[in-house]
Amino acid sequence: LMPAVIAHRGACGYLPEHTLPAKAMAYAMGADFLEQDVVATRDDELVVLHDIHLDRVTDVAARYPGRAREDTRYYVRDFDLAEIRTLRVTERLDDEGHPVYPGRFPPHTGHFAVHTLAEELALVAGLNRATGCNTGVYPEIKRPAWHLAQGVDISVAFLEVLAAHGYAGPQDAIFVQCFDATELVRLRHELGCRIRLVQLIGENSWGEAATDYDFLRTGSGLTELAGTVDAIGPWVSQLYAPGSDGEAPRSTGLAERARGAGLQIHPYTFRADDLAPGFGSFADMVRYFCVDLGGDGQFTDFPDQVRRRVDDDADER
Ligand code: CA
Fold it and tell me: Taking phi first (over 0 means left), then psi (-120 to 50 degrees means alpha), and beta for anything else, what does residue 40 get?
């Protein structure tokens, strides 16, 4: 079985993240899954954006001055969908307004907009019909506890949109991902979600959720996870230690423990312009995680390049 190529925010190495053009490009590049990050607007519509904030990828500050919260950030939750549709999307900027990846699509150029989860699912369905392929989707519920505190149960709305587009069971071409372990338990065991689930594993210091990722990486943590999810999505740096002086990288044992618990492994993020420490080339990095560690999927900003490496490695075997 070949590792799945998961287009992280679309082909975002080439076009601004989470725009429909970036998704269409990833589709054409042969990704197995297109990723959606999902956030709720003030009028409870679900849009595809990586952050609960708008300011790093849109012109919201220029278009809606005075609408920031006290922390100076502009929140998706404070805007209606109709307002969000007026924004121009740009290549991602850092907090000083510089592009995070300077070699990528030029910031503040092109004509890109925010779209809804339903619109993206319709795009994928249309492309699948037109091409005869069955490319999957890989949506992430962002910050469910934060959304609940802001007055919206995002998971319930999210499952309704998926069901309306035919995503309901383990055989469908979809994985649902979340950093919040409590929410994944709720999805599986309270809300009756039968779709394949992925526990994203971050570092406790990131503050993504109240989840203890140190525990989840232990044997007992992974065994417990296997009662709820089908796969883990670890950060690549949690899987290996770089070799010194040209030595091969060493596994931390997480991949082996996860496999022992019956879980698939879908690490993030594979960037040809930002290699993980210790790898001399993108090909070496892809091969290590997909062949040496036996990963089952790879989140990548460059789906064409991972597609090519994965296919080449399969030919060699
Ligand atoms: Ca994501």
Answer: beta
Question: Which residues have a catalytic role annotated?
Answer: 8, 50
**Residues 6 or more apart whose Cβ sits within 8 Å of residue 115:** 19, 20, 47, 48
Would you say residue 316 has pLDDT above 80? no
71 token code pair:
């922390």
pTM: 0.97
Per-residue model confidence (pLDDT) at position 244: 83
pLDDT at 2: 82
Nearby residues of 275 by Cβ (< 8 Å), 6 or more positions away: 281, 282, 285
User: b/e string for 112-128 if b means 16 or more Cβ within 10 A?
Assistant: bebbbbbebbebbeebe
CA of 35 to the centre of ligand 1 (A): 7
> How many angstroms does the Cα of residue 155 sit away from the middle of ligand 1?
15
Residues 6+ apart with CB under 8 A from 289: 236, 239, 267, 270, 295, 298
- CA 141 – ligand 1 centroid, Å: 8
Q: How far is the CA of 38 from the centre of ligand 1 (A)?
A: 9
Helices (H), the chain: 20-28, 60-63, 81-84, 117-131, 144-149, 154-164, 181-189, 213-216, 219-225, 254-260, 282-287, 303-316
Mean pLDDT of the chain: 97
Task: Report CA(247)–ligand 1 centroid distance (Å).
Answer: 32
CB 236, CB 200: distance < 8 Å: no
Q: Is it the case that residue 1 has pLDDT exceeding 80? A: no
CA dihedral defined by 254, 209, 45, 64, rounded to 10 degrees?
Answer: -120
Is residue 58 predicted with pLDDT exceeding 70?
yes
What is the average pLDDT across 56-73?
Answer: 97
pLDDT in tens, 238-280: 999 998 887 899 999 999 999 999 999 999 999 999 999 999 9
